[in-house]
Automatic annotation (TrEMBL):
Its main location: membrane. It comes from the Eukaryota. One of its GO terms (biological process) is symbiont-mediated evasion of host immune response. This is Trypanosome variant surface glycoprotein (A-type), putative. The lineage of its organism: Eukaryota, Discoba, Euglenozoa, Kinetoplastea, Metakinetoplastina. One of its GO terms (cellular component) is plasma membrane. Signal peptide: none annotated. SUPFAM superfamilies: Variant surface glycoprotein (N-terminal domain). InterPro entries: Trypano_VSG_A_N_dom (IPR001812). It is a lipid-anchor; GPI-anchor.
Length: 454
């Protein structure tokens, strides 16, 4: 660049200079393009925030389901957890699709900004201090003295930080195209500026003193295609023109894009239009959404129907609405009421060397909730294990009792006599000389009168 700049400054000027005002318009486009990475970041961060919120909501609802003893409430909370997880999965899928869109938009915006920045800086460098000769001129035919500082409004060469920001429609970029580029010239004629720049001069043959080596060069795209330039050996025939880009299409879409600005426009448009109406940005938003929008109830209906757990009911929802009504207390403000019930459920918080009794609302740190959920799971498993053990012991005890009774008969009971040994299914009946030890259980079951058994 330095060699070319020296050549331009030393050579005899003989062609048109670039109009500062038109170059500023291109810089305004570059400035807006420089914001595209922030737009991409904002959309990605919103999805990441929703994924995190959905995970937290799922964790809260799972913990509530484990803590809740009421069957209907526990079922609903499990459904809320599953629906919250579905919200997170949908946001993750959206994020996956957004990655390519965001990268294409930011990569192409970066290429355009770089191409514009480089050439503007070059024009400023070769024109600074010029009057008789210059390639960048204001209406007086000379370059503005502040160009090196203002860089004609082009964005900074480097980016040190990036903050998320929503796209704001502006005078440079609109859904229909690049608003300020409706064709026309971009050279400056004032102050004889149309004969002051050496850049477009040629003599029609290869020459060490000219930039262009042929006199038949067609218009060449410059600054990412926002301008075209035409060289010639006659100053008046050289040309610096703006591309027509103000009416590319509608809603950020150019059909069959061909040029670099057109393809860039579509890439930016795909990013801007990548909107996602999800479940919310906080755990409370997610919980209210899946309850209020009926997503948890829909899951209950689906499971009850598929597993044939209940009848259709009059609403054809397999009792899901009635279940939600039962948990909420009525049909009004159900999301808020159910969320309040979840928040108030007691949980055991696991601390470093002890536990503390809290509510779900006061135990809302995800790490604490994970520990509480694991503790509850362990306790539930222990309770089920102990219950199973007790049940088995009762089964064995009953089996032993039945076996003892079934081994006795009238004959064996009679052999035991009427003393202390007459037990375990035997009973003394009769008085005086008529008393006898009998198999009591069978006699009672069959309702056989004593005299009939003698």
């Amino acid at each position: 660049m330095a060699t070319l700049a020296t050549a331009v400054q030393l050579a005899e000027p003989s062609a048109k200079a670039f109009d500062e005002a038109e170059v500023q318009k291109i810089c305004s486009i570059a400035t807006e393009l420089d914001k595209i990475p922030s737009v991409a970041l904002q959309k990605q961060e919103a999805l990441i925030k929703e994924i995190k919120a959905a995970y937290e909501a799922e964790l809260i609802a799972f913990l509530a389901a484990e803590q809740e003893e009421d069957a209907n409430a526990s079922t609903l909370y499990k459904a809320v957890a599953a629906a919250s997880g579905a919200c997170g999965a949908a946001a993750a899928q959206q994020l996956e699709g957004l990655q390519k869109v965001a990268l294409l938009a930011t990569v192409n915006a970066g290429k355009a900004t770089g191409a514009i920045n480089e050439f503007v800086d070059f024009l400023i460098a070769v024109s600074t201090g010029g009057s008789t000769g210059t390639c960048l001129a204001a209406s007086n035919g000379s370059p503005s003295g502040s160009n090196a500082q203002s860089r004609l409004g082009c964005p900074a060469k480097t980016t040190d930080n990036l903050n998320p920001a929503e796209f704001q429609e502006n005078s440079a970029l609109k859904p229909s195209g690049y608003a300020q580029f409706s064709g026309g010239t971009a050279h400056q004629s004032g102050g004889s500026a149309d004969t002051k720049c050496f850049l477009l001069k040629t003599n029609g043959a290869s020459s060490a003193t000219n930039v262009w080596q042929t006199n038949t060069v067609s218009p060449q795209p410059l600054m990412f295609g926002f301008l075209t330039v035409t060289s010639h050996n006659t100053a008046g025939t050289t040309a610096i023109n703006k591309a027509t880009l103000n009416a590319l299409g509608t809603n950020w879409e150019k059909t069959n894009p061909q040029t670099a600005p057109e393809k860039l426009f579509n890439a930016i448009g795909h990013l801007i239009k990548a909107e996602y109406d999800g479940c919310g940005q906080t755990a409370t938003d997610i919980l209210n959404h899946v309850i209020g929008k009926g997503k948890a109830a829909q899951l209950i209906t689906s499971v009850r129907k598929g597993a044939k757990l209940t009848d259709k009911t009059s609403k054809n929802d397999y009792g899901a609405a009635a279940l939600v009504d039962d948990v909420a207390g009525d049909s009004k403000n159900q999301a808020e009421k159910i969320k309040n019930k979840i928040d108030s459920l007691p949980v055991t918080q696991v601390q470093v060397d002890k536990t503390a009794e809290k509510t779900i609302k006061t135990n809302s740190n995800p790490e604490d909730m994970r520990k509480s959920l694991l503790l509850r799971h362990i306790k539930n498993k222990e309770a089920f294990k102990n219950l199973g053990k007790q049940l088995q012991e009762e089964i064995v005890k009953k089996a032993n009792t039945v076996t003892t009774k079934m081994t006795e008969t009238d004959a064996t009971c009679a052999q035991k006599g009427t003393g202390a040994e007459c037990k375990d299914g035997c009973k003394v009946e009769g008085t005086g000389d008529n008393n006898i030890g009998l198999y009591f259980q069978r006699q009672i079951q069959e309702n056989i009168p004593y005299r009939s058994r003698l």
